[in-house]
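Thread: Newbie trying to understand structure tokens

Hi all, I'm a second-year student working on a class project, and my supervisor (Dr. K.) asked me to get a predicted structure for one chain before our next meeting. I've only ever worked with sequences, so writing a 3D structure as a token string is new to me. If someone could post the tokens and maybe explain what I'm looking at, I'd be very grateful. Here's the chain:
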Amino acid sequence: MGQYTASQRKNVRILLVGDAGVGKTSLILSLVSEEYPEEVPPRAEEITIPANVTPEQVPTSIVDFSAVEQSEDALAAEINKAHVVCIVYAVDDDDTLDRITSHWLPLVRAKCNPSLDGEGDAEAEAEGDAQREPIRKPIVLVGNKIDLIEYSTMDSVLAIMEDYPEIESCVECSAKTLHNISEMFYYAQKAVLHPTSPLYMMEEQELTSACKKSLVRIFKICDIDGDNLLNDYELNLFQRRCFNTPLQPQILDEVKAVIQKNVPDGIYNDAVTLKGFLFLHCLFIQRGRNETTWAVLRRFGYNDQLEMCQEYLRPPLKIPPGSSTELSHRGQQFLIAVFERYDRDGDGALSPEEHKMLFSTCPAAPWSYSTDIRKSCPINDTTGWVTLHGWLCRWTLMTLIDVVKTMEYLAYLGFNVHENDSQLAAIHVTRERRIDLAKRQSSRSVYKCHVIGPKGSGKTGLCRGFLVEDMHKLIGKEFKTNVVNCINSVQVYGQEKHLILRDIDVRHALDPLQPQEVNCDVACLVYDSSNPRSFEYVARIYIKYYAESKIPVMIVGTKCDMDERRQDYLMQPSEFCDKYKLLPPHLFSLKTNKKELYTKLATMAAFPRFQAAWILFYKHRLVQLWESAHLRQFGLMTEDPKLWLKAGLGVAAATMLGFIVLKTISAAGAHTR
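---
Reply by user tm_fold:
Sure, no problem. This is what the structure looks like when written as tokens:
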């Protein structure tokens, strides 16, 4: 896919204004014909210079203005359409120089900000001033007719630049001798593509706060080992990522020497500090090499306003109906590397300070906006800090329920730069669920299980038990925080899968379920086995929403440590499951601290067709048969190879019997359908 860089403008529009007779039309004609025109019309026609003949490879339109042929309204329209305005004065006429500040600069400001021009009512003006900053159109001051004098007007112009920050640059030229003609239009183009004002404050001779903030983030991302220094290896990576070329050792030594000379603490242990990094970019700008700093900023996703541009944060991702989003292997490896970089003490968990430092390149931690994600994952039981396992669980959950936010934060953390690719490489879009059903096997590694049951059925405890090692700690606990999702990993036939339990909130028994509450990879319908009125709700939910669907369903009876009560329903739970060809009810209790339920749910999601659930059941029965019929006969610790051979033959026979049983069940299932 290749590296991604925030795009700059795809075209540049330059407007030339100035007093009559300053030579602005001659400048345009001299540029086009490369010779001085003997006859000059009142106004030159608009011309467009193709991209392949401009230094920045951007098509450039040049527009002339004539007060003789055009009205003030036409001037206002042209100023607003232009990306940069060149104010031309004659170096041999002081009046035209004075009118830069007395007329042209105030005029351009006013036309860009109508409230400053006396237009609109006072109320609209006050509201506008309060809500937005005035627009600053980039300006280039152009002194023409330099061939007529033997002195420079630059001192006077530089004084003007100090009072008007929108002035990007100034140049003296001659339309007659063609001196600095190309440079003039290059500066105008550069003022649009690589503007100074967002980066640098002329008055303070300092980087703007927005530029500093952006460069600090870039420094942190490039500081791979997290020692607050950029060593030679990190600087070389930075150079390659931004400019696609290595940094020669001699050049690197020269750069360090310049930093050391100007900023004593800019170099430490032969590595560049943050102060040195900021000074270097300040120096680039002071020497007129804005394009260097802009190339870095755009490589890291910044637009002309020094904001992360939306196409960089949110590349378009197509998700077909029935598909879901997961972290790819590259995405997981990147997040593991980020975690380990900021786990400074190597204890396998992020302390609050480490967590804060990790997200210092982001607006905030992504789960600071969502209590659900923050509380939905396993944590370190002793400290309450997020472990690597919990870290990956959080990102897995966020990628499933809000993949756009995942892509945004991967960009903030520097995935695009470190991986030399867009965040799309960190996302895996699964195949459609209908294909999984057709193939009778899911290719996903993250499964959604909706846990549905009446109030008091214990479904919240069932969900929270998934997050802790010892479920006894949850007994008698009142769950005050509303956590919708609980995520953890389980093993399905030796492969790690993530299972997300979504606690479906049921306010009233007669409330209908919404489609997003029904659709999932596996449904877990929960009733209280000690409450005779609990199962009816579960039965009605199954018949109404799942009996005709292809979503696998597990019915779970909670609080099995208490006396099981006969249910006030047409059928008892086991009879109901038998009628609808479901697995027998799974009895669950926090007191037993057994977690095979979660593995069963994940396995049913991985093999979503009806027969697969029976495979699990009969596989379990075959293991019991094998243990009772053979291990007891031969003994677990026997070292007689003949006896182990007999055991192996017995297992093979039992397995063959199992396949025959399964084949029969499959045929029966097909017949009933």
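A couple of things are worth pointing out once you decode it. The chain has a mean pLDDT of 85. Residues 72 and 78 are 10 Å apart (CA to CA). Feel free to ask follow-ups in this thread.
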